[in-house]
Amino acid sequence: MDRYEIRLSGSGGQGLILAGKILAEAVVIYDGRNAVQTQSYGPEARGGASKAEVVISDSDIDYPKAVELDLLLSLTQESCTKYICDLKKSGILIVDSGAVKDIPHGDYRIYEADISDLAVKEIGKAVVTNIVALGILTRIAGVASEEAVRKAILARVPKGTEEINKKAFDTGLRVGGELLAESKRS
Amino acid sequence: MPVKISDKIRMMTGNEACAEGAIAAGCLFFGGYPITPSSEIAEYLSRRFPIIGGKFIQMEDEIGAMGSVIGAALTGMKAMTATSGPGFSLKQENIGYASMAEVPCVIIDVQRGGPSTGMPTLPAQMDVQQARWGTHGDRGVIALTASSAQETFEQTIHAFNLAERYMTPVVLLIDEITGHTTEKVTLPDYDSIERVDRKRPTEPPETYLPYKYTDDCIPTLAPFGTGYRYNVTGLCHNETGFPTNDPKEIERLILRLTEKIVKNRHEIINCKRTMLDDAEIAIFAYGSVARSARQAVLQLREEGIKAGLLEPTVLWPFPSEIVLKIAEQVDSFLVAEMNLGQMAREVELASKCKASIHRLNRVDGSPISPPQIVGKIKEVV
């Protein structure tokens, strides 16, 4: 089945559901393919485990949830430990190295970046961590065009925050590119 | 608000599609009390209704919300509320009132796990029997379901049409997965949508009887404020709408409340069929589980197992005759649902021992996945 399955995981309030929505909208609206986005979170407004899933396909998507992940993004240790078992062989694991210290061993392509630290140091706002992560993911996964994701971000984020979100996305793309180059060298 | 591709193609959650479907159906009143996972329906309409001339009111609680919907509907408006399990429990008293007084209205229940406050953010299908029997007393019930954002849009319109046609509250049961899944929705031209409006009296106010007995069993309630004065009550009443203790009148009323649905069941019942023609095992699934089942059927067919899917989009009245026909054809049924077998018992009753009934149930707040269904079928076959 031609499904590409992505899970964005971390804790409630990190903006992962928004990032998932943006990615799905980019794929469907601007790239013209099919995608569905689902979510799972706890009853708390902040904290607790949170995940957003995006399934991308060129045909109809019956089951909307991920079964076997092509890509797992983890912004917390808890989510990485919990969901790594769903990542398929040779799948992509992207982790926030500031939060995930204990990276599970296995047959994965692992990319580490201090994502929340990048958001704070380069953009000056921790709140754009999700968009930095989206940039890294977009460059590494290559399943949505960068132009589409950029347009989808601008269509979604609150007015007045376009510039910092653009900057956050570009930072993510750059870091994603560096990680890819690094992995090719090694 | 959802992002648009064009005016007609949008990325929407099931909840947003439901709210948009209500607008497309001509609904202009929402009375509610927010509750996860249904709150986005209220949120969407609270933004849209002030712009298009509708009324949105957040009431003091769910009981009041259902009361406000009945009041609005009696003025001739298309009115709705949206809730989830705990709120659906609270609304039951007034849903019974709407059934008894024959007030058309729509109740959306985005199901989460129960009992009580249960699992606020997790999916379940534990309210399907509550939709049938949640309020006390005998009455006919119409309850629909949907498995995607597109279908939720369409079923919401359908719910309003059935409510107006049969003068009864109509429940649309979706679940957290359908409510919160964002996917592509293609909106039709709103001018081309078929909208049903309740019958209006043709006789003058002097000879008007709101609950007059007619062949189709459906009363003609004049909108309040149009010059027709009549009584509306939850007590057993006669044709005038005033309470009665006459056993004959009471029996006639209670039978009619059931018969107006039962007699018309062939017009109300609807099922989608996937690869059932030569199936040896039929999956019975509805709501978001039907999506898993569809994927499972495709995989099983690839492996040479003759599986098919019966997916009712109307849960009540229950499609007994259709289930029986399939039971006579297949060896067995697998009823997959996110509860402990609430619809499996209906399938068992309807199939009259013509096929063996197997169950796949999940009540841990997790969805039933295609591999789970495939695994269960291989175990059974």
Characterization of this structure:
The complex is a heterodimer of chains A (186) and B (381). Chain A contains six helices and six strands, in the order E-H-E-E-E-H-E-E-H-H-H-H. Chain A is of the alpha/beta class and 186 residues long. Chain A has a six-stranded mixed beta sheet, sandwiched between helices. In chain A, helix 5 packs antiparallel against helix 6. Chain A starts with a strand and ends with a helix. Chain B has two domains: 184 residues, Rossmann fold (3-Layer(aba) Sandwich), CATH 3.40.50; 110 residues, 3-Layer(aba) Sandwich (Rossmann fold), CATH 3.40.50. Chain B contains 13 helices and 15 strands. In chain B, strands 2, 3, 4, 5, 6, 7, 8 and 13 form an eight-stranded mixed beta sheet that branches. Chain B is globular, with a radius of gyration of 21 Å. Chains A and B meet through helix 1, strand 2 and helix 5 of A and strand 6, strand 9 and helix 10 of B.
Q: Under the CATH scheme, which class of chain A?
A: Alpha Beta
In CATH terms, what is the architecture of chain A? 3-Layer(aba) Sandwich
According to CATH, the homologous superfamily of chain A is Pyruvate-ferredoxin oxidoreductase, PFOR, domain III
Oligomer: heterodimer
Radius of gyration of chain A: 15 Å
Count up the helices of chain B: 13
Can you give the mean pLDDT of chain A? 94
Q: Give the proportion of residues in helices of chain A.
A: 40-55%
Could you report the average pLDDT of chain B, rounded to the nearest whole number? 97
Beginning-to-end CA distance, first to last residue of chain A? 31 Å
* Total domain modules of chain A: 1
The CATH homologous superfamily of the largest domain in chain B is termed Thiamin diphosphate (ThDP)-binding fold, Pyr/PP domains
Helical content of chain B (DSSP H or I, runs of 4+): 25-40%
How many strands, which pairing sense, and closed or not: the largest β-sheet of chain A? Answer: 6 strands, mixed
Beta-strand share of residues of chain B: 15-25%
Largest sheet of chain B: 8 strands, mixed
Shape type of chain A: globular
CATH architecture of the largest domain in chain B: 3-Layer(aba) Sandwich
Radius of gyration of chain B: 21 Å
Quick one: overall form of chain B? globular
Structural class of chain B: alpha/beta
